[in-house]
Amino acid sequence: MNKIKVDNTLEMVLIDNQHAETLYQLVKLNRQHLREWLPWVDHMRSVEDFRKYINSSKQRYANHTEMGYVIMAGQVMVGRVGMYNIDLTNKSASIGYWLDKEWMGKGIITRCCKAIIEEGFSYLLLNRIEIRAATANSKSQAIPERLGFKREGIIRQGEFVNNQFVDLYVYSMLKEEWQKSALTDI
């Protein structure tokens, strides 16, 4: 899917070459905010770094292992969300996300995750979707908790961020649980 309409104000657009400059500027503006929890931020120092990343993301999309989107609020890019580590054999994937600090607290990531989860279960026919969040990152943990994901456990020292290992909570949602929760939302 090249575009996913989230609601009247948001849409997710498949990442492409024309997004490199804007992504670079967005990360540059949010570097301190993002680098606290994301290990890749310090490695993204130029538009060319983003071009390389986008090309590899497009290759993973072609290989059916990733669906990476930019989040658009009208004409303004406000962040990224994606389905990663897509494993069609085992019908599973992970979701990752980040947002411009100025746009936090408006439910944007929750709404985008809801849309991408729908896509994963209906279009990709996944059975399991996972979200990982650092045990000290309560804002990131709030997303899967708000969406009804189950916290399964901790991956000890699961990510290397800012020259130290951080523990990650693992959250999951199964297709049958998502379908049941959709019925209770009616």
Describe the structure.
It is a single chain. This protein is α+β, with helices and mostly antiparallel strands. The chain contains five helices and eight strands. It has helices spanning 20-35, 47-62, 108-122, 138-146, 175-184; strands spanning 3-5, 10-14, 67-73, 76-87, 92-99, 128-134, 150-161, 164-174. Strand 1 and strand 2 form a beta hairpin. Helix 1 packs across helix 2. The longest helix has 16 residues, at 20-35.
How would you summarize the topology of this molecule?
Layout: E1 3-5, E2 10-14, H1 20-35, H2 47-62, E3 67-73, E4 76-87, E5 92-99, H3 108-122, E6 128-134, H4 138-146, E7 150-161, E8 164-174, H5 175-184
Parallel strand pairs: 5-6
Antiparallel strand pairs: 1-2, 2-3, 3-4, 4-5, 6-8, 7-8
Helix pairs in contact: 1-2
Defining key terms:
186 residues, alpha+beta, Aminopeptidase, eight-stranded mixed beta sheet, 5 helices, 35% helix, Ribosomal_N-acetyltransferase, GNAT_dom, GNAT family N-acetyltransferase
How far apart the termini lie comes to 26 Å
CA radius of gyration: 16 Å
CATH top level assignment? Alpha Beta
Gross CATH architecture: 3-Layer(aba) Sandwich
- CATH homologous superfamily classification: Gcn5-related N-acetyltransferase (GNAT)
What structural category arises from helix and sheet content?
Answer: alpha+beta
Please trace the helix and strand order, writing H or E for each element: EEHHEEEHEHEEH
CATH fold node name? Aminopeptidase
Tally the structural domains. 1
Q: What is the residue-mean pLDDT, rounded to a whole number?
A: 92
Global morphology: globular
Strand content: 25-35%
User: Low-confidence segments, ≥5 residues, pLDDT <50?
Assistant: none
Please report the total strand number as a whole number: 8
In this structure, how is the largest beta sheet organized? 8 strands, mixed
Can you give the helix content as a percent range?
25-40%
Strand order of the largest sheet: 1-2-3-4-5-6-8-7
Helical segment count: 5
